[in-house]
Amino acid sequence: MNLTAENHSVPLSDGNRIPLLGLGTYGDPRTTPKGTAYESVKLAIDVGYRHFDGALVYFNEHEVGQAIREKIADGTVKREDIFYCGKLWNTFHPPELVRPALERTLKTLQLDYVDLYIIELPTAFKPGDTFYPKDEDGKYIYHHTDLCATWEALEACKDAGLIKSLGVSNFNRRQLELILNKPGLKHRPVSNQVECHPYFTQPKLLEYCRQNQIVIVGYSPLGTSRDASWVNLKCPPLLEDEVLLSIGRKYRKSTAQVALRFNVQRGVVVIPKSFSPQRIHQNFQIFDFSLTEDEMKQIEGLNKNIRFVELLMWSDHPEYPFHDEY
Ligand SMILES: NC(=O)c1ccc[n+]([C@@H]2O[C@H](COP(=O)([O-])OP(=O)(O)OC[C@H]3O[C@@H](n4cnc5c(N)ncnc54)[C@H](OP(=O)(O)O)[C@@H]3O)[C@@H](O)[C@H]2O)c1
């Protein structure tokens, strides 16, 4: 059997499918050389990746789009083989800004539609082109969001054919319920992209989402890049975990491969980021082994319930999602 991410996908509630493995494309724009995302996405398509996770605020969407378009032009893939997820940033939540923000992503990618478009965070900022608006005292300037109004504007973009599937990210249960219970809801959120890995297994949110046909897309599935400027380093390095190491030895797999396999085996989509050719290859090799029930339980037991991505600088926002238990 030809093992590719294409035939390892899960259904979404709207009838589309999402590949269980995608390539994360966030690299620190201050330290990542120009062209790195472009080269990485091209290589990833050659390796077999079909799902790419990007965003306008990653500042490399033009490179990701160029790589995808070139791989379509050279006949390696067709547009319909590719699954691209884009994200609506915090400064574009007012309904009248939603379609222009999406169109900006489409123009940057030079594609006609995105496969999935998600509200990146429930926390709206002052609307406009300053992505991180701050006042003279250096405090973030927030904005009141009616998440349901934002959602209705997204529904209109889907109806216009610019988006295949609609989802959210960093939403807690209350915020998901707000959308699911919206009077006149036309399109349900198909997915919720949240931090998810063996040290933060999300048992309660996962169960709630399963009950509501919402697929969890796990970000930072390898425990992040451990960049001290935005990562909580109180949580120890995931990839040095002894249990993952010992399970990996049994299958001749790395801790990264065991961590990714754990999630896909329980139906959680993973989007590991790598801009290294060797690790892009390595992270794709997770469909040729499986973990026993006992090993899955052992890994579930590693849960520390500590986030690497706490976003504490926005914890005073009225819609900060992580005060609630889940
Ligand atoms: N929605 C959100 O709010 C949100 C938040 C965070 C992330 N995300 C998405 O999720 C993606 C992944 O999350 P992330 O970037 O935070 O972290 P991650 O995927 O958990 O980890 C990435 C780090 O691990 C390294 N790495 C990759 N493969 C490896 C391997 N096999 N062995 C050892 N190290 C390896 C990478 O370095 P190299 O590049 O050098 O390989 C990089 O430093 C992001 O790129 C982004 O698309 C979304």
From TrEMBL:
InterPro entries: AKR, AKR1D1, Aldo/ket_reductase_CS, NAD(P)_OxRdtase_dom_sf, NADP_OxRdtase_dom. Gene3D superfamilies: NADP-dependent oxidoreductase domain. CDD domains: AKR_AKR1D1-3. The record marks 87 as: Lowers pKa of active site Tyr. Pfam families: Aldo_ket_red (PF00248). Residues 21-303 form the NADP-dependent oxidoreductase domain. The active site is at residue 58. Substrate binds at residue 143. One of its GO terms (biological process) is bile acid biosynthetic process. One of its GO terms (molecular function) is Delta4-3-oxosteroid 5beta-reductase activity. Belongs to the aldo/keto reductase family. This is NADP-dependent oxidoreductase domain-containing protein.
